[in-house]
Amino acid sequence: MQLSSIVPWGRSLAEYKAMFDLSITDLERRILGCGDGPASFNAELTGQGGEVVSVDPIYQFTRQEIHSRIQRVYPGVVAELARNAEQYHWSSFRDPGHVGSVRMSAMNRFLSDYDSGLKDGRYIEASLPELPMFDNEFELAVVSHLLFLYSEQIDAIQHLNSLKELCRVAGEVRVFPLVDLKGKLSSHLRPVMEELYAQGYHVERVKVPYRFQKGADEMLRVVSKKRPSRKSHGSESLEPESKADA
């Protein structure tokens, strides 16, 4: 992977809580963050006594290299938000500049934690669909802005294999968002949900409190049927009698 092909853009713990509907109990679990990039989720939660490991191919680069890349792409990302402002809700953020400020704060928090996190094994260079983790090493895995969002770049088979790998290493998997870059529900969602169900997993689409990209208000939750299933408010399960609409 070339660093020049990456657009680092990090989100905060507060955003993770909303995107994945994370409760206080959830945050006490051993968590894997997949595709976290320069998010401050790991740094903030670790600072509060949480136990989290982040994996991303960007962690092959040094702090200075990542910082330089952030500085290079930041103006363009904010400008792109401004050009496409109608595709977003502006209730949590005032304007594109405010988004940039909040995200830059999160990325700076990540950068300040990065070297110590690497040393502690909290940031690991890895990418789906193969993770260097033991079976059931984590209680919860969260995937932010990777699967389904990049549906044109990642095909349905890769989505399925990635989710099965995540279920191998974690008892529960949550993925947000379920829309693609155009704001449309991913064409991979229904076939992937149906195949996971056929293979014995509990799968459901769950409404979450996060609102930014229009149409992105649900996460996918996947749990092995052999494990206890948590009832979720505003959720729609995939069952033989009534399959979730895609």
TrEMBL record:
Where is the stretch described as Disordered? 223-246
Which intervals carry biased composition (Basic residues)? 223-232
- Extent of Basic and acidic residues compositional bias: 233-246
The organism's place on the tree of life at top rank: Bacteria
Keyword tags: Methyltransferase, Transferase
**Molecular function, one GO term:** methyltransferase activity
Name this protein carries in UniProt: SAM-dependent methyltransferase
* GO biological-process terms attached to the record: methylation
